[in-house]
Amino acid sequence: MYTLKSIASRGTMLGAAFALVAAAVLPAASVFADGLNPLTERSLLLSSSAPGFQDTDGSGNSETSLNANGATFALPGTGQNGKKSGETFTFNVSSDSTSRPIEGITFQYCTSAAGYCQAPGNNLGDDRDDLPQARETNAQAHPNSRSDLDVVGTFGESTTATPAAGEFVVLVEGVQSSGWVMEAVNREDTAHSGNLSGKNNYIRLKHTDVADGAVPTPGQTVQVIFKASTNNYITNPGAGSFFVKINTYDSDQDVDLVSGDESVIDGGVTVANMMTDSIHITTKVLETMDFSVGVRNKDTQSVSHGSCDPIEVIGGNRLDLGDVDAEFSLRTDKAYDAFSYWRLSSNSSGGATVYYSGNTLNNTVGDNIDEMGAEGNSHPGTEQFGLALIDPSKANPVFDSENPTAPTPAETFPGTFPSNWETPSMDGLVTGTSYDEGDTPSISSSTTADNAKFAFYETSSTVPEVIAQNNNDVIRCATSKVRYVANIAADTPAGIYTTKINYLAAPQY
Hints:
- The chain is mostly beta strands and 509 residues long.
- The protein folds into 2 domains: 37-274; 279-507, no CATH class.
- It is built from 1 helix and 24 strands.
- The chain has one helix at residues 13-25; strands at residues 40-46, 87-92, 104-110, 150-152, 156-157, 167-172, 175-177, 180-185, 202-207, 221-226, 233-235, 241-249, 264-274, 279-285, 318-320, 336-346, 352-357, 373-377, 384-390, 430-431, 453-456, 465-470, 475-487, 495-507.
- Strands 1, 2, 5, 6, 7 and 10 form a 6-stranded mixed sheet that branches. It has a 6-stranded mixed sheet with strand order 15-14-24-17-22-20, with no helix packed on it.
- A hairpin with a 2-residue loop joins strand 6 and strand 7.
- The model is unreliable at 1-35, 127-140, 284-295 and 397-409 (pLDDT under 50).
């Protein structure tokens, strides 16, 4: 159990201020301030921020589905699969471990940052009470579009600094620390007033090698990477935010590695993350097609709303991409674009990084529209799929077939705004250099200089690609407009092409 440590009153304003700060960073009742230092610069990157009940691609295929070429879809550890995700923890240590090596690391997933721990999730399929339940069968695991967080299987230790599927690795300043074993158990507090899931919400890493464990010096970075596989993975909760409590230890004994243990070195702190849904994009090369509506920024609508309301999900976040007069199909002589938005707020003093993860447009028989790759212009007649970011406070590019190089106005915001409303903008987030030239109106001009630029890497499906970053301050309400472009060649095979792009945010505390 994590509780806020009570502090004796000093009888002065200075004492009161100190007590408030101490209570915020010391959630362990039995650990004294001089025996527990916080881990700093903490962040958690999920391979997918999709809810745990989602494990399909844009066409509804899962990893158990095979296309005509025998390839699988929505593999574990990709942005499309929230049921079988991987995770990367990054943090800096405070203590000097050269004389007190780290022999144990724990991660405890809870619904709150302090107090009794309840594992995250909203699965109604369990017969729950105040005691942990037996693990569910696969058939019962995710009913009614809900899921609980669960750590499934035992990740094996990687032999290199880059883990393969189903493996984990501990890195100190990018160099592998070897000799670790991993286990996952349920560690919820029966005293919690809510119902418990009984799932594995507690990961223990223990160093069993004869040699010392990890030996970082103060301020050095430790990174723990879990890469998902079919049998070893972490299932995301179904909805909402969750917190992961982190501790390091100088013991590798078979004891309950929980805060308050005398072997704790640094810890008593958490990282936070939250589930989001994917952007579904569907297009086709002629033939027939049926599309649903995409996403919308409420700030651009004539409706009353808050100062930083969430971007609206409409029609399952599906975007139509193509010629509206030809059932949203692509052509060889013109380029077509579509738009979505994302918005980020975070009180992390170390800022945050935004990534995308996904594949290029593909159909169910294995045909793909080529990725854009490195940043480049849109070229109709050449297979391309790419994206770029646009600051909504600046340009509002719209493809105009009659006058493709004509300037367009800034995005208009006609809504009824509260007194503290600010024009939506990137708010300090710096767009990656490969994705910052999408605001030029034209995407079909024969003059390269007049065309917008895009980029896209399908390797982002397994290694998320950075598109925006802020490492220096909190993020109040960063809003980005994402522009997608697709082109085909004369020999692009006919069919319905889909993809699903997932956006990930990793704040650094």
